[in-house]
Amino acid sequence: MTSPTRTPLHRQASTVRTLLALIDQYPNLPAADFDVSSSPVGERLTINVHNDPAGFEMWREALGLNPENSELVAFSDFAAVKVFGQTDGIRVRLIGYLPPVLDAAPAAAA
Length: 110
Hints:
Structural class: alpha+beta
Distance between the termini: 69 Å
Strand order of the largest sheet: 1-2-5-4-3
Radius of gyration: 17 Å
Order of helices and strands: HEEHEEE
Number of strands: 5
Helix content: 10-25%
Shape: globular
Number of helices: 2
């Protein structure tokens, strides 16, 4: 049986430094949840903003992420907006967890 290949912690240092730089540069952004991950294709920082559409937009603008690089995933009890990009050479995924998307137009009364 072979041992799994482990990624050393130091490989995530640049991603953590990027996150710390964002905290220093934008101390008034709303709190979020963060995930620092590394894979064979590189490091990634995921920023999760919950139930705060305005806070999500503040993060998107601070990161300079293009809204055209976003996708909306609707579930029965919530929606997730994902925007992808890069900051300081680190792949970034910003996810906003929002109330469910409702039908835009109710059925017309007969």
